[in-house]
Protein 1
Amino acid sequence: MSAVLASPPAALAPPRGLLLGTKGWSGVMAAVIAILVLAPVLNLMVPAGSALHLSDYMVALVGKIMCYAICALAMDLIWGYTGILSLGHGLFFALGGYGMGMYLMRQIGRDGNYKSDLPDFMVFLNWKELPWHWALSDSFVAQMLLVILVPGLLAFVFGFFAFRSRIKGVYFSIITQAMTYAAMLLFFRNETGFGGNNGFTDFKRILGIPIATPSTRMVLFVITGLTLVGFFLMARWLVGTKFGRVLQAIRDAENRVMFCGYNPLAYKLGIWTLSAVMCAIAGALYVPQVGIINPSEMSVPAGIEIAIWAAVGGRATLVGPIIGAFFVNGVKSWLTVVAPEYWLYFLGALFIAVTLFLPQGIVGGVRKLLGKNDQETRA
């Protein structure tokens, strides 16, 4: 564990003044083409009987994993580049999901089981009107603003008091986990107006368009993919700025940063709030594609898994956590079908293996291997 928690080496960056190198831009363009062209063609135009057909199941699965990849990227910004390990980012992901879910529940209208303007769970609980925090839930624009503002404000307030008190290390991780667990218990209660342990499901429409059609799912897939690419480019730009270099200095020697006249509070608070908003947006994109949101997204294992994705892929690399999210969740989707009882054992073994043998993650291991090969070639 100590090897994984240690500060990662400085990431290999493109020459100063360039956002990405030639290979980096080639990879980004390949990803954009796959998202905008390849996936829609294979899903919507290639016949279902063809070996090249991309099934609706795979579209939903990849779309879900891309949402997870955004969370892993957000984790890399605070953990890999700033040295802040959060085990509570599942809370921000879930808050964004609930914000979108509230809007989708209102879009059901009278198509629910009880043919009421109220969501079915409210009718079942004998509620007569919407609670106050549902007042704007019928407006897509208002709810999307709340998806950003509510998690962002919560992260800002929590971070301000935590960072001002100079809480760090394992104590900060435990507090974030406790905060998330407390929120999960709150959302489990029926009287809070969030559907209790069942959460929200049975969505019908988004912006008046049926949500279960292949074309709608593909639009959500494309939006999610482009959002992931956009956040990656934003993160790459951010870590190359003065702000990003100060973050890395805080990670490596916070006391020296203070001695040089910088106030770490503003920098840590800024990146912490940004990462929370990224997770919230990922949660909002996740819900219409998966079709459900409930308090389990705030569970302790959910928060830990986000950190595992970043660790497995490679911290302080940006692309590594994305790879880690795809690798871990791809294996999870396969293993939970073939041998579901072994999934948690595999996840624990994977984390131990990364700690012992790949402390810099998959990307770090590949770079080390390529470096050795280059040295052998020169020799």
Protein 2
Amino acid sequence: MKFAPLMRAALLVSAMAVLPAATSGLAAVDSRVNPEFDKLFHIYALIKDNYVDQVDDDKLLKGAIDGMLASLDPHSNYLDGPSLQRLETMIDGNYSGLGLSVVEDEGAVKIIAPFKGSPAEKAGLKAGDYITHLDGVLYYERDLDEAVSKMRGAAGTSIKLTIYRPGRDEPFDVTVTRGVIELEPVTWELKENVGYISVNEFSRDVGVDVAKAITDLRKQAATKGTGPMVGLVLDLRQNPGGSLDEAVALSDLFLDKGVIVSQRGRRASENQFYRAETMFKGDALKGTPIAVLVDAGSASASEIVAGALQDQHRAVIMGERTFGKGSVQSFLPLDRTSAIKLTTARYYTPSGHSVQEGGIEPDIEVPQLSDPDARLRAERAVRESDLRGHLINEAGLEDKDLESDKTDDPRFAATPKELEAQGIKDFQLHYAISTLQRTAGKPAALAAAAKPVSPNPAATKAPAKKD
């Protein structure tokens, strides 16, 4: 998870406290492992003596460290030089590039999500896309840092990406002009009498910014004469996550009791419960229905918020099953120029549900009908459970258990062209707003059971699929 500047000092102190214990643990390594260390050094000596070219020691040692961490899970990795600098750049929230969150998957560069409003999103890149070539050069089984460095660059310069999109027969090229990525974690807008808040990532002060957005939306509703704000849409789509503390803060904004999230690790110090009323007092929108939009690009901190509001029956979750990253990463410095990002715990929703692999299932599954590629992409979407070496859910879920009912829902039969003719560019958002407007004044728990609105006239009498 990305760490906000406010957290950095605390993280460094707590991480450094862990290191002596870890170092002393080396002396107690199981004697059965010692031959494997001998083998490692023997291989090192063989490479140094026999490889066709002279090999730099730093390269060999970094490769050994990378391999050790890569054998654990997709989110544990070694950070030094450019990779550590990029993490610090993401903390600052200002850099020049494309605006993408990417991960290595089976040797390929896979897009977790483009940041909202970024050059990547404007160019049409989507969660689940694979980047196969950069300016015509194949990037497969190469260092992910190398690919990220290639995509970074001065604002105004361009790069050609070759994209493989699940659901399409052939790869295609997209030229993206780099820009200055000044991340706006929170944006908001009043849509008639419904508030709309989009949280793009969980960086510093997200909870405070959403609280300000709510105050502003209420003022707008009062001055525009639309009457009181009848509902709120909280958009967490394509949000790859961020700070755990900010996920807790955002959840706490709408909850006045109970557990928000818990985390459990092998070390007792990693077992924690985060409760409501610790960051904000009361429910900022008490009595006002909330709909939370999620999709396959909603990961980590986004899933914490969705899970907390769902389990506490404070919001209706709409959209698609989330990514399924239910693990917590700690930032452990080694020295001034290097660190490791290590998975140290799993997190659980208030009901004790592990998000790992399975993600958050929406209360109302709403496809993105306005996207012509959405259905095929959804059928082939890559989530945490598809990543090589991912943590296994302790419940022992099978892949088939993660698949939802594929039966067509008659409410969602409109085509992208039909929606475009009606001026609907974002069907999921349109659906959420329409539902809140039709359930104005009712508790959030009733919103899921209310008869939904559909742009398909033949489907207006169909019952809700899920509540």
Protein 3
Amino acid sequence: MTCMKAQSMITPFINDKLNIKETEEFIDHIHSCHECREELEVYYALLTAMKQLDEDKNLSDDFSMELTAKLDREQEKIIHIKYTYYRKKGVLILIILVIAFFFGLRYDNNGANENIVVESTYRLRISFHEEQNSIYKQLLELKLEELKQEALNKEELKQE
């Protein structure tokens, strides 16, 4: 974040108008840039003092300490939001893994009850043709056997 961008975010930060991502970037810049930190302290003291005067409250003794407390609270808020975000992600991942595990068990149990096909009556085209050919082959062999038998009978008749 540039100093110009950070300085434009000082008033929204003091008035709690920044979203979490902007607040995080702003605080990171404030911790790394001494000039922007001083600018923030000046604006914080002025805006807070004017707000307290408008509300007829007693002026604070140490604006720097209040600013440090506000920065710490905002950082804790960011940490808490990130922790909650990652915790939700972790729980979601855990739920997905548990569901996947149970579906995996269910799938394995269903497979245990299935019958494994050892022999099938389903005939492929090739096996069908082989069966048809074997039938024709058997018929041909029977016919040849009959013809042989007739030929033998004829020879026996001729010899007699």
